[in-house]
Specification:
alpha/beta; Rossmann fold; 2 domains; six-stranded mixed sheet; 8 helices; globular; phosphoadenylyl-sulfate reductase (thioredoxin) activity; Rossmann-like_a/b/a_fold; oxidoreductase; PAPS_reduct_dom; Phosphoadenosine phosphosulphate reductase domain-containing protein
Length: 231
Amino acid sequence: MQHNGFRLRHSTQGGLMERDLKRIAQLKREFENKTIPEIIGRTKEEFGDKLAMTTAFGYSGIVLMSFVKDIIPDLPIYFIDTRLHFEETLKLARKIKKEWKLNIIHISTKYTEKELEELMGKETYKTNPDLCCQYRKVEPLLHVLKTKSAWLSAIRRDQARTREKIDIIEIDSRGSIKINPLYNWTRDQTWMYIRKYDLPYNPLHDQYYPSVGCKPCTAPIDKGGDERDGR
């Protein structure tokens, strides 16, 4: 499939070029009248091989990948393996990759566990979780972010107060374009879709873990709380 070669460009002042901002605004208007499969297909047409996705195999991500597998099965989908994930998450990742034939790419820190201990100390997730995230999660992500210009994301407005104002397409703080096809889906709507189509999901969700990250830093939450309160 051909795409139009759209790339983000920056002015000498460091901001995005006006024509790029206008193009994104145009895509926003266009996406608002399209179905999720149409949005994904149009996004691929627009950004070509500069489009990718990241996933931690949360239930919203599973729904989005269920669309992706039928529309862009070769889309690069990056999974950041922090080496601290629950076994349930890793088992689900293997299952999805095998059964859905998706192009799931595991990325991880360049450091060995011994080197991380020398850099950060022991069990840094207890004493300095931000530093732990920086080495295990943020740095590997930044490495792949610079290779792409647009990212499919499964975030939703109702997941947390910090996400209440997300839009169907937006530019993040790093200058990457994020396309959020599920932005206005609710938790109930997402679970109804999973059950209707019998999609696999992380069994920890049934144990009051609405959002599953690294094992040391993820806890169950009370029913009715923000999904990311346990992270």
